Amino acid sequence: MARDTLAAPASAACDPGTRRTLRLPRATLGLLLPVLALIAAQAGVRTGLIPANLLPAPTEIAATIAGLAHQGLGGHVLASTVRVAIGFAGGALLAILLGALVGLNRTAQALFDPTFQALRAIPSLAWVPLLLLWLGIDEAPKLVLIGIGAFFPVYMGVVSGIRDVDRKLIEAARLYRLNRTALARRVLLPAALPAIFTGLRNGLSLAWMFMVAAELIAASQGLGYLLSDGRETSRADIVLSAIVLLALLGKASDSLMRRLENRLLAWRDNYAPA
User: Among 101, 147, 220, 233, which has the highest number of CB atoms less than 10 A from its own CB?
Assistant: First the structure.
């Protein structure tokens, strides 16, 4: 009987349905702060504590988004999303290739890394006039600027991930007489994947930021253009609507990247907070 008594809690703790029930509140916990902020903003505007011309009520912002949806909002969202996707893909791919080269080769590190570290400190807006002079005002400067924003976080993630690989793994690989190519392919790069994905997620968020900088300067379509248009027409509701959409798109893209990371790195046996 004592054995049955002890086994019951253990089986209940291991039951998948029980785990889902316990985790459900945590899944919705992330909505708590946004909901509270919306309620506070709505109450502040309605009571007159917050000027409505500076911070429109959330209901007014929702109405503005609904109105923009009938005026071509989908085209603005699509234009920005395509620019981010192309710019991020190009910048991340180049960063992975050069980061692997620098991480695996000391000569390449001495040649490239000092220059990349210097370029990494240049603000995004400093690139805009130069890219406009070189590439004009079409799509090319926007895509290049987004690629620049994505490049450096991914590059840093790849290099630090390779350099932080446990030396014991390398020594074990050498015991099996793996050559340098096999060592990089089967040990170094897989072990560096967690850091690489961290760099990819940071690069993706910066790609959205650099996209706004590009569209603020020279664009006739996109969420950055909506921000600029709202500022020029003193429409705070349009500005905040664009900001809300950028936040939602950024969170959605990060969630997709996080899901891909969890799928590809399911073999990790790392710390999970209680």
Answer: 147
pLDDT one-digit tens code per residue, 128-162: 888 888 988 888 999 999 999 999 999 999 999 98
Q: Cα separation of 117 and 152, whole Å?
A: 9
Whole-number pLDDT of residue 25: 62
Enumerate the domain spans of the chain.
76-264
Q: Residue 66 pLDDT more than 90?
A: yes
Q: DSSP secondary structure string, 66-113?
A: HHHHTTTHHHHHHHHHHHHHHHHHHHHHHHHHHHHHHHH-HHHHHHHH
- The answer to whether 223 touches 75, Cβ cutoff 8 Å, is no
Q: Does domain 76-264 have CATH number 1.10.510.10?
A: no
The residues, any chain, with a CB within 8 Å of residue 244's CB and separated by 6 or more, are 61, 65
Model confidence at 8, pLDDT cuts 50, 70, 90, reads: very low
Q: How far apart are CA 167 and CA 189, in angstroms?
A: 14
User: What are the tens digits of pLDDT across the range 156-187?
Assistant: 999 999 888 888 877 787 777 778 788 777 88
CB 245 within 8 A of CB 65: yes
- Write down the residue that tokens 């991480």 correspond to: 103
pTM of the model: 0.83
Contact status, residue 45 vs residue 57, Cβ threshold 8 Å = yes
Do 197 and 261 meet the contact criterion of CB atoms below 8 Å apart?
A: yes
